[in-house]
Amino acid sequence: DRENVIQLQLEEKHRFVKTMSDMFAEWDESGSGKCSMKDFIDHLSDPHTQALLKSLDIEGRDAVTLFELLDPEGSGDVDLTEFVTGCITLRGPAKAVHVEEVTTRSRVIQERADVIDQKLDFIMANLK
Q: What pTM was estimated for this model as a whole?
């Protein structure tokens, strides 16, 4: 029934979060509460890390991209919350709505860049 399905989904999410939290703790050898890109790369050959990436439908060769997505500020490290939240968000294949969102945003950015380029060309032409 519906209640059992909801309960099973919550239990699966809890197990997933626990697994990621435990793995993160292994990576955080300094105990700083953060995982650096170097720490992450150092653990890519670990079977547990490989299993995590597989559960996220991420190929090993795309792991660095995963880390960069989890670290949008570019600080070079991620904390536990960023890691768990990001992995849950990125889990599974992209949904059509997500692909469409990225496509639309990319088109808007390109249009704005084209307008800026035209204005710069105009400014440069008038400076001569």
A: 0.59
